[in-house]
Specification:
Number of domains of chain A: 2
Largest sheet of chain A: 6 strands, antiparallel
Number of strands of chain A: 8
CATH class of the largest domain in chain A: Alpha Beta
Structural class of chain A: alpha+beta
Strand content of chain A: 25-35%
Oligomer: homodimer
Shape of chain A: elongated
Distance between the termini of chain A: 66 Å
Helix content of chain A: 25-40%
CATH architecture of the largest domain in chain A: 3-Layer(aba) Sandwich
Largest interface: A-B, 38 and 38 residues
Low-confidence stretches of chain A: 85-91, 234-242
CATH topology of the largest domain in chain A: Chorismate lyase
DNA sequence: GTTACATCTTTTGTCTTATATAAGACCTGT
DNA sequence: ACAGGTCTTATATAAGACAAAAGATGTAAC
């Protein structure tokens, strides 16, 4: 292992492992070589490899099973994650994503700032719809720097069933993870109501997030509007009685 | 150190350290003994103490500064945490909490299930209001098992400026951390509107959370309604143009 | 006297070695 | 066929040695 120094060993190992994953050396849900083997390969001890893998497990890039092995984790879509109470959506209904549009636009001042780009840099604007059991549940707009994702085709997005996170990973080697996430409640305007096929002034959960790559660089900025009334949530709230 | 076995050493150390913190052996922001000293005290190696402290740092019970020491972290309130962009609230405005009520009620079926209590167990129902710069921003209802928090007095809550998390900690030795958190958007009903001093049908962010102690046992169930329009959020959303 | 700088001490952080524990595969006797 | 060892290979834990960072302290130059 090349000792660039100025950086702890386990950090270098982490990078090397990440690079190997990005190079497609091991497939999704495929087991990596054992910690001992990786240790030999990088010329460090098992404990050091372990510390590197620990960090990747914490970032949900890998998962482990004692006595069995360490595996590459899949890349499920952000939008669909953590919205439902049951793991795969209640009642056996499967959420699906419909791609609405994918066009090139130019970054405004604030957005360029947030994504660390020069002003008016080229961006992909991707819009998609989240459906659950036939009903439209959410609308999302995502903005990606064109520089990092040069050829973003609608065909390809459709191929991956709208899973942009997987696309970023497979086609561009960028592994996204959640950065900041902000929530707020808003009323549906005309545009949102039309796209969500619901009424103006329905309350919507607005989700603003900045996804970063595993080095912490901002990569995708997105806003989603969700009809939370319809979601299979926890038992509803107590009746106020004050 | 008593070797109960069936549990790794570092886990036992973790418990002992946690117990010492609960016993008030070290104050908030006070430094613990060095890892080497703790190692001597518990009769284990520094590395083992380190692994125990690692876990507590991950749970934000402790924080560390290389070359300086390890310190007991404070207990800021849940409600106020992570809502603002700037660390202490924008524009120098300080959020404050007003206690509305604190009464004893009986658990419904679902709630008893969630909190792991028998049906109709006694609960404290605490209601409080979040103010920012004079304006009412949020309303929260919290439910705590009376068994775990026997004497909950309004006077005491007021003393701690409404910080229930700190109260649970100081008076009952229960260190709370976030468990599940769910978000949804709802419209203000008459009750919420009246208490929040706003209009019916304003969109509100509803936050349902279950706080657990550091052993993972559910302790506090709460619902909050927040006026997110007023919060100092990220730059507002792009104008839809589809 | 004060300041710049080296050095010492104490602390957390990293790394290796050795050993324990978990899981599954493979025997092997009934 | 199947129940139960035991072998192999994985991750998990523990201890000790050493490195790096931060602050305190001493000291020479001015």
């Amino acid at each position: 292992m090349s000792k660039l120094a100025a950086q702890p060993l386990y950090r270098q190992v982490l990078r090397e492992v990440m690079a190997a994953i990005e190079a497609g050396e091991w497939d999704e849900d495929e087991s990596l070589p054992s910690e001992t083997d990786l240790a030999k390969r990088f010329g460090v001890s098992q404990g050091t490899v372990r510390k590197a893998l620990d960090a990747l497990v914490a970032d949900a890039v890998l998962y482990r099973r004692q006595g069995v092995g360490t595996f590459v984790a899949g890349t499920s879509d952000f939008l669909l994650r953590g919205l439902f109470t049951t793991p795969a959506g209640a009642d056996g209904v499967k959420p699906s994503v419909e791609l609405l549009s994918c066009v090139k636009i130019h970054a405004g001042e604030q957005l360029a700032e947030i994504l660390g780009l020069r002003r008016a840099a080229a961006l992909w604007q991707v819009r998609r719809l989240l459906r659950v059991g036939g009903q439209v549940i959410g609308l999302e707009e995502m903005l990606l720097p064109e520089a990092n994702f040069p050829s973003l085709e609608m065909r390809r997005i459709r191929e991956l069933k709208g899973n942009l996170r997987e696309l970023c990973w497979r086609d561009f080697g960028v592994r996204l993870k959640d950065g900041q996430v902000r929530y707020r409640a808003v009323l549906a305007g005309q545009t949102e109501a039309r796209l969500l096929m619901t009424d103006v002034n329905e309350p919507l959960l607005q989700l603003v997030r900045l996804a970063v790559d595993f080095e912490g660089r901002p990569q995708v900025w997105s806003v989603a509007w969700l009809r939370t009334e319809e979601l299979a949530f926890e038992p509803p709230v107590l009746s106020p009685q004050v």
